[in-house]
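*** Backbone structure tokens ***
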Amino acid sequence: MSEPSPDEVEEYYKKLKDEAEKAGYHLNPDMDLTLELVRSLLVNERRYGYPNCPCRLASGSKEEDLDIICPCDYRDLDLAQYSRCYCCLYVSPGASEEDLKNPIPERRLSKEERAQKAQAAQEAQKGEVIERISSLPLPVWRCRVCGYLCAREEPPQTCPICKATKERFERFV
């Protein structure tokens, strides 16, 4: 993997600055720091296929790292509370030098905490789906082979998806 050239860094910086300003955000005026962060974003994009925050470890799984792809999910909270984002790429317009030097806490949950939160959200969503299905006027049948769902008095003779027979269906709710 080759290092980004100074021209590539400058081009990406201009793109980020333009996007930031159009959205009402500001990049750090410290050009040495900002260009190093931009270079790191390019390195991460080449390494992982996405520009994850240079101040956080990426897993290499885009799905797992969606919250730390720049601009990360934590940027706006950090800007509001600390006048800068975690890596200091984005800053508030009135940020003092002191604001930009002080460390800020990491908001990102641990991998285990993120997994627990995702599981809880998935279970809550599953509960909502079951609640909605339970309110249907007909029973819902599930093909045990492919998961196909249908609402009707009796299961179909044959699954329209995988062609499993009626005996392979179970009442879902």
About this structure: The chain has a mean pLDDT of 91. The chain has six helices and five strands.
